[in-house]
C-alpha cells in the first residue's frame, strides 16, 4: 500500500536551496504514475500548503465557508500573509 510523507522546507537562502530543488524537480519529472518507483516525488507546491490547511481548518471551525474559498485561491501563501 502506498504511503505518503509531506515535508515543508523553510528556505532563507535560495542559492543554498537550488541544488536540493533541482533534485526534487528531477524526481517529480521522473515519477511515472503508471509505473511508480519504490520511492519518488509525486507532487510539489511552491507555497506553504500545511499552513493553508491550518487556515482552512480554522475557517471551517468558525463555519466561514467564504473564507475557505478565499484561502483556496491564495497564491504564494506564507506565514506572514
Structure write-up:
With 81 residues, this protein is mainly α. The protein folds into two domains: 1-44, no CATH class; 46-81, no CATH class. The protein has three helices and no strands. It has helices at 14-30, 49-61, 65-73.
The domain count comes to: 2
User: What is the terminal separation in angstroms?
Assistant: 37 Å
Q: Which residue ranges are poorly predicted, with pLDDT under 50 across at least 5 consecutive positions?
A: none
DSSP helical segment count: 3
Overall, the morphology is extended
Instruction: Specify Rg, calculated over alpha carbons.
Output: 16 Å
Mean pLDDT: 92
Estimate what percentage of residues fall within beta strands: under 5%
Oligomer: single chain
Report on the biggest sheet.
none
Class from secondary-structure proportions: mainly alpha
By DSSP, the count of extended strands is: 0
What's the topology here?
Blueprint: H1 14-30, H2 49-61, H3 65-73
Amino acid at each position: 500500500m502506498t504511503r505518503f510523507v509531506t515535508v515543508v522546507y523553510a528556505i532563507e537562502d535560495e542559492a543554498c536551496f537550488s541544488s536540493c530543488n533541482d533534485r526534487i524537480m528531477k524526481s517529480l519529472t521522473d515519477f511515472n504514475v503508471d509505473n511508480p518507483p519504490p520511492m519518488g516525488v509525486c507532487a510539489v507546491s511552491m507555497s506553504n500548503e500545511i499552513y493553508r490547511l491550518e487556515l482552512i481548518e480554522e475557517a471551517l471551525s468558525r463555519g466561514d465557508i467564504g473564507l475557505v474559498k478565499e484561502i483556496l485561491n491564495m497564491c504564494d501563501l506564507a506565514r506572514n500573509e
